[in-house]
């Protein structure tokens, strides 16, 4: 029986991680913490035990109490203010709720001398604006943040390295690329597009126009179910102090995603660019190499983009009916 | 008349910066803030106007009030918990009092849209453990923090870059090497050694033994008076968004400094290494190149190590008599 502490348990990735544990590690005991409430559906995770505790990770004392009491083998740090757009509007809040909460977490682990492994989740945004010649990005790529969110994530990584090397904590780091999948909040780009298109298909929109930011940016989309299996493998097999790209290895522009959605949904839409959705200095193209994690853990992404999109459409329609 | 806001005004470097302004920019108006009290000697800075305000920079609201009211042209950010040793013992405190206070500062400048230039003071510690082949270190050297303090300083630099590029703030950055000079606290290595040797010379010590950490580490010592003239030149001539080494360009081991002190003071001492003063992963050797700042601003260091040491000895003797 392994005990997992999951920070940010109410979030998109956590819910998929819980399902993954429920299906593959049925003996697991989970304690989840979050600043947002956690609603557990009846029979949602039938095999694992899941406890929830409301907690603000900026409060070190509460965090210490929780960790001391639960004494997990694994800590998966998924709590994050992960929106780049939000970080431009609220840079201090973004920094505190990415970097400072992580620092508090590892500091408590250090002070309590807890024998556990921590998964520090980072972001492909850390790479910043890269030259095409550098693609696909390996972990050796120099980091060059282009947003407050990215700066916060790099700071988190610096802290991880110091706590590993200086204090001997057991931390494995990720640089996770753009997740997609059912359940993601509609402030993120793909669900926002899908929502607009679902409305058009069922005749609820005035025109067949959808509004997006920069359609030419290219991202390496990876299904959240593949992401959570990567996280479990990194907890079990990742090398202490190392960081791993978690990505699909392929790039698609937002425009291409819209094309695929048109095919899947059997509709045609007109795309309008909203200048106000463009960010001060957006990374044009991000594609990662997943060689390092494949080699170390045997992980590979299994869910192609079309299947992810199909399920996002279904999820959106289901939410609409509720 | 230029208005300067100096953060950490009660500190070692600030006092020298005030004297420098008093001697070279007599019309200046200064507002100093600090969490520690600021004691102004009678007639200490006869030409400039200096006001003090007690302030904790973790309190954004107070900071906003001060900046709005004073509206400086120049902000010199000297507030810092700058001890590497302390950062190993109190990593969270170190991070907050280096990175978070700086983030609060630039965030307030951004929110108020203050038209001012900010000098973000960083540290040579950001370079971390370097290969001898990389010496002297130029600003192109990759950063590799080896202490919580260094991680905090790099995070500060990342924040500077985002606020420059993303929000258009006017920030010039430094990577300042080891400062020495009269007035430095005795928890730092050189004044601590000088104090021990002064006690030996006046017969107040039981033996002629001094206790140090690792005597073989090499540092690029630069006199604090040269540091403050560099800071003024960077405010006036530095390029926005750029970072500059502030260093002497020469390296001396702690052991060599002890030898020089023996000569200057006419005594011989025995050196004992205290293992408890060794840090988890100390940088063995740090020597910087000051080409970039020389080229851009015409700055050069003027005070040789012997003169610095001589004045530190005098200062220590004077403090002892008080």
Rounded Rg of chain A? 19 Å
* Most extensive chain interface and residues per partner: A-B, 30 and 30 residues
- Helix content bin of chain A: 40-55%
Count of DSSP helices of chain A?
10
Based on Cα principal axes, name the global outline of chain A. Answer: globular
Major β-sheet annotation of chain A: 7 strands, parallel
Kindly list the characteristics that best describe this protein:
homodimer; 322 residues; alpha/beta; 7-stranded parallel β-sheet; two-stranded parallel ribbon; 41% helix
Question: Could you please describe the fold and organization of this structure?
Answer:
The structure is a homodimer of 322-residue chains. The first copy, chain A, has 322 residues and is α/β, with parallel strands linked by helices. Helices cover 41% and strands 17% of the residues of chain A. Chain A has helices at residues 12-24, 60-70, 84-89, 91-112, 148-165, 189-201, 224-237, 254-265, 291-297, 305-321; strands spanning 3-7, 29-34, 49-54, 74-77, 117-123, 170-176, 179-180, 209-212, 218-219, 222-223, 243-246, 252-253, 270-273. In chain A, the strands form 4 sheets. In chain A, strands 3-2-1-4-5-6-11 form a 7-stranded parallel beta sheet, with helices on both faces. A two-stranded parallel sheet of chain A has the order 7-10. In chain A, helix 5 (148-165) links the parallel strand 5 (117-123) and strand 6. In chain A, helix 4 (91-112) runs parallel beside helix 5. Chain A is globular, with a radius of gyration of 19 Å. The first copy, chain A, starts with a strand and ends with a helix. At the A-B interface, helix 4 and helix 5 of A face helix 4 and helix 5 of B.
